[in-house]
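Session log. Operator J.P. requested a structure for one protein chain; no other inputs attached. Running the standard single-chain path with token output.
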Amino acid sequence: LIKFTDGEQKKHTGGRSLSALTDFLEGKVAATPPPKKEAPKENVKDIVVLTDADFSEKTATGTWFVKFYAPWCGHCKNMAPTWAEYATKVKGQYHVAHIDCTTEKTTCSSLGVRGYPTLKLLVDGTPIDYSGPRTIAAWESFYAENV
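Structure written below.
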């Protein structure tokens, strides 16, 4: 929002409430916007990062649980710490990975990924869609039922 007064412009940087906008228009000091809430960070230590270049080769053998995500996706950001914890828990038993569908479009498109996050269990290259709860216990059960 920009206010023009006597040929000068002032940019509104305050809140979006009625009182904040009224204060701005009346020339009072604009309220400081609330700090942005940081999304939980994903610790990728035990998560394999896949790309278009290596996806087919790496997932052709063995068992892979893969998260297809977009960095801007709120659900993906919220799931990130749990996915990292899961990767650490099952390390050495099977692979837990993720692939950024905003940069690795060929793989995501070929596997029919249309929303984020999408989870797929790949057993020797064959994908199995996951649509259950986003919990470690649910992922472990899904793995046990399909391998």
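Operator note: The longest strand covers residues 63-69.
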